Amino acid sequence: MHIKRIDPANMKGLSGQYIQELEAFLKHTSGVLRPGMPLFDRVVFTSTRADGDHIPKIGYVGKGSYIQDVMSGQFGADFASAIRNQDPRFDAAVAGGFARAAQGHRVCELVEMEVTPPGALKGIPVSYYRFIDRLWLGAPSPVLVNLTLPTLTQFHELQFLQDRAHLWPN
């Protein structure tokens, strides 16, 4: 697994545009939730209790989020577990970004790895952008807002998986 910090302005494609849009909104509102938050149905809210070793507790998962798609098995049975099991330090590697965001540092990263889904003979590249920042909902403490979206490379791989998903059970 390779995690690289990246400026949102350098994120390509529609995913980059979406992340730039959310970042601009959070800068404009000083991180306070306001009506009209872009991409609300694609974000995930987590606790700010991030220790850097485990992914923090999830409070809300947008129905249109990439995380929801992966967790619900849209890309094949056990794809989410295949991603996690590919690297024994996956949780800790991913959790580091949440810990930095909980301390008030905006996180913009490119995450790349290769995953061999159950039943597959060959690994496929997994590549996504993630944006994590604090969001104030009006409570005394913030939550973390996470927008994770596939890169252009991953988008083509996902299309391949979706087109062939019916072959996996056989």
Give a concise summary:
The protein is an alpha+beta fold.
Structural class, by secondary structure, is alpha+beta
Query: What value does the Rg take, in angstroms?
Result: 16 Å
Q: Could you tell me the number of beta strands?
A: 6
Mean pLDDT: 82
Count of helical stretches: 5
**Low-confidence residue ranges:** 164-170
Q: What fraction of the residues are assigned to beta strands by DSSP?
A: 15-25%
Give the total of domains.
1
Order of helices and strands: EHEEHHHEEEH
- Could you tell me the CATH topology label: Beta-Lactamase
- The CATH class label is Alpha Beta
Instruction: Please give the alpha-carbon distance between the first and last residues.
Output: 30 Å
Morphology: globular
Q: Bin the helical content.
A: 25-40%
CATH architecture: 2-Layer Sandwich
Report the oligomer.
single chain
Main sheet characteristics:
6 strands, antiparallel
Can you list the strand order of the major beta sheet? Answer: 1-4-5-6-2-3
